[in-house]
Amino acid sequence: MSEYGTLQDRVQCKSLLDKVKTPEQCIDFFKDGMNLGWSGFTPAGYPKVVPIALAEHVEKNNLQGKLKFNLFIGASVGAETENRWAINDMIDRRWPYQTGKDIAAGINAGRIRMGDKHLSLFAQDLGYGFYTKDSPTGKLDLAIIEVSEILEDGSLVPTSSCGVIPEILMICDKVIIEVNTGQPSFKGIHDLLTPLTPPNRQVFNITRADSRIGSISIPCDPSKVIAVVESKLRDQGRAFAEQDDTSEAIANHIIDFFTHEVKAGRLPKNLLPIQSGVGSIANAVIGGLAKGPFQNLTVFTEVLQDTMLDLFDSGKLDCASSCSLSLSADPGFPKFFANMDKYFDKITLRPLSISNAPEPIRRLGCIAMNTPVEIDIFAHANSTLVGGTRMINGLGGSGDFLRNGYLKMMHTPSSRPSKTDPTGISCVVPHCSHIDHTEHDLDCVITEQGLADLRGMAPKDRARRIIEKCAHPDYKAQLTEYLNIAEADCLKRKVGHEPQLWDRAFKMHLNLEKNGTMKLKNWDVKVDLCE
């Protein structure tokens, strides 16, 4: 028995107690090539004991590469499941986002076929059956869902995230349910709705960050359930990145900008609902808000990290809406569970199809803040592919918010170290090596050097503003020289709206690959690319 009750307590649909199995008893349900749907969104709310048991089965029986699956999950999940599956060559296809060294290595080595997608569109298209259209049944073969409780009618109460559970249940007729008794129940924290398909898709009538439009559980036909498995394993959430001088400088620029916008009347005194990504910069921004002058803040985002609890503790955050409660294993979740009476009623967890839907993001006027790999002088941004080819994690939900928010902001260090040069990688480049967010999406670019407000600016003006405000001093002159050369050449040919020279635009990237730094000797080109 867990200190938080028994499996019998949590399974109120008593007919399902006849389907209780051990994780090992579920192994026979899995066949090579299956399309699997998992709950989870970031390392929160994902199934644990069944995926771990299946990995152990593969390891014990030398089945690496012989038992492979296609995974459709809301976002990344815990490394003890997904990363372990990648090590054992158990993943053929993976949609739409992942984290972990081993799964990324598998993707970049060509062993794992990954599809990168805006998260709101992934949830929607999964429910439409687009990802399973070529399977014999047109559906997912099997789902594994972690829940806190199963209610009397068979409906499911998720745990720390909602992910794409509604869409999975729409297109899957066989479901394994992991009931997690190793933590308190999350019953009451969720706002759950299964979006229908057009032309019957519902209005998401969210008018405040804490609006509720659904119910506390997701319908599930008990006849679909083939196994109920008890789990006592908690989410292995990543510890949040520590703040440093660079991230704090970026946060200060953003807080100053918000203060200016309030004075100008373009933001209310309590700002507008905040969407913040993950990482040290996001943590620093939230930390800055906790110390800043703004009261009665609200959050409408996709991931709540440890620093959001600190913002609640400051008394300045009234409520937060998210797809997942992605706290660290320590101290995040222990702190949350010890103070559930303080946080629980102020947090709303929603399915991905709603947390990232364009409709409420635009209606609420969210302030979107995310971190890219690089931005270019015209304000295109690369969030996914280092050097244009090496996948890191995926696009995530940044585009959902950057295309629909009230203020669309991206923050990054102005430079990063290479192996041989402490400022060898400029995060401001002539042209991004891969573009996830176009110049049309961004309002502001921020580095520790400064904030470039690009609203209402034409391309060449944006370029000079970004170089002036955001580029590292080691690269300002180099980038300005490139822009001057490109502008003179393109205007001479009367093609100068957004000047680029394609024989030089990626020279900084090529120099990094060859010489270990983006610092160039000159912008000369010695090779005729059309030879």
UniProtKB/TrEMBL annotation:
Pfam families: AcetylCoA_hyd_C, AcetylCoA_hydro
Keyword line: Cytoplasm, Hydrolase
Acetyl-CoA hydrolase/transferase C-terminal domain ranges (all copies): 332-482
Regions that span the bilayer: none
Protein EC: 3.1.2.1
Any GO CC annotation of this UniProt entry: cytoplasm
Biological process according to GO: acetate metabolic process
GO molecular function: acetate CoA-transferase activity; acetyl-CoA hydrolase activity
Keyword Acyltransferase in record: no
Domain annotation Acetyl-CoA hydrolase/transferase N-terminal: ranges: 16-230
Domain of life: Bacteria
InterPro entries: AcetylCoA_hyd_C (IPR026888), AcetylCoA_hyd_C_sf (IPR038460), ActCoA_hydro (IPR046433), ActCoA_hydro_N (IPR003702), NagB/RpiA_transferase-like (IPR037171)
Subcellular location: Cytoplasm
Catalyzed chemical reaction(s): acetyl-CoA + H2O = acetate + CoA + H(+)
Main localisation: cytoplasm
Record family assignment: Belongs to the acetyl-CoA hydrolase/transferase family.
Protein name stated in the entry: Acetyl-CoA hydrolase
Lineage of source species: Bacteria, Pseudomonadati, Thermodesulfobacteriota, Desulfuromonadia, Geobacterales
